[in-house]
Amino acid sequence: MKHTRLLLALGLLTGLLFSQAPPAAVLAVQGEIPTPLSLTEEDLAKLPRETASVTAADGTKMVYEGVTLRAVLEKAGAPFGKKLRGKVLTTYVLAKAMDGYQVIFTLAELDPDFGNESVLLADKRDGKPLPDKQGPFRLVCPNDHEGARSVRMLESLEVVRLAK
């Protein structure tokens, strides 16, 4: 009888463990910013949404949806506009992927008064969540001539200032 109860308890515990939903994907925004963030897909869904169209090498057009990288960095307190002067112009964002891939963007190239580069932090493609090998988060750089800075499987953004 003891063994039966133990097996039943183990079975229930195993069922509870495996029936829970997978943990929500989280994007870390950290570094030299006033407000470090841990953003989920639900957090991004609450920010102003935009789209970006990209043409693949085979001519297929894809439409990505998400929030601008600038909007996410502004939410974390990164300096833009009149605050982006002097030594602050040495600040960049290091985007890191789950597979170790890394690229950088300067704050100046993202600022409307300087480069005004449009970079989208996407969580959807063609109206659906990103496929596993792309997401759950991806940077999309529609104005880049090469797609090398369109980081897939994005896991963190680190704000770094070179000059102190």
3D structure, described in words:
The protein is α+β, with helices and mostly antiparallel strands and 164 residues long. Helix content is 21%, strand content 32%. It has 4 helices and 10 strands. The strands form 2 sheets. It has a 5-stranded mixed beta sheet. Strands 3, 4, 7, 8 and 9 form a 5-stranded antiparallel beta sheet that branches.
Topology record:
Layout: H1 2-19, E1 27-31, E2 37-39, H2 41-45, E3 50-55, E4 61-68, H3 69-75, E5 91-97, E6 102-106, H4 107-110, E7 120-125, E8 128-129, E9 138-140, E10 154-161
Parallel strand pairs: 1-10
Antiparallel strand pairs: 1-2, 3-4, 4-7, 5-6, 5-10, 7-8, 7-9
Provide a concise account of the structure shown:
With 164 residues, this protein is an alpha+beta fold.
